[in-house]
Specification:
Layout lengths: L15 H10 L1 H6 L1 H9 L1 H19 L3 H9 L2 E7 L2 E7 L9 E8 L5 E8 L6 E6 L5 E6 L5 H14 L1
Antiparallel strand pairs: 1-2, 2-3, 3-4, 4-5, 5-6
Helix pairs in contact: 1-4, 3-4, 4-5
Length: 165
Amino acid sequence: MSAFANTPQLSGNQHRWHYEFAHLALRIPVFGQADFILDALADPLRSRALIRAAMARVAQNCGLSEDLVETLAKEIRVLPARFGADSGFVVGMPPPQNAPECYLFAIVRDNNGNIAYYTLERSIGEGSTMLCGWNAEGAHLNFGPGPKPDLDAFVAAIVALRQKS
């Protein structure tokens, strides 16, 4: 999930797209419309449409052209994942350029229908990550140093964190 060779050069406010997509564009609706978002992510065609729609909102804030939106949207990957007994999706992003942009983020639903939103963010330290998340009230949560930016390591870190709670 980390091989993104076609990421275009961006300038000015366009760099914010990465942060806005992972931290805002999907996070906000997933807590209010979890069934809709998770159902869309489960279907490859609807998933692509959801990503493009979220990118269109981000484009308005970041000054991205339609061509740039299409190029960036194609680099976002959605994979179903198991988090112990819980299910959800991991979303892979093009490599982050700055802290706190995300390598990956995950949307997890437990057996009671509760939603959790986790992020694996680039840290200030070279080559280091932070395992973070967001709650339904919009508070950013910092769980400490994260794993390497790898799908399996990210899922394992989330499972371990959820087992502690």
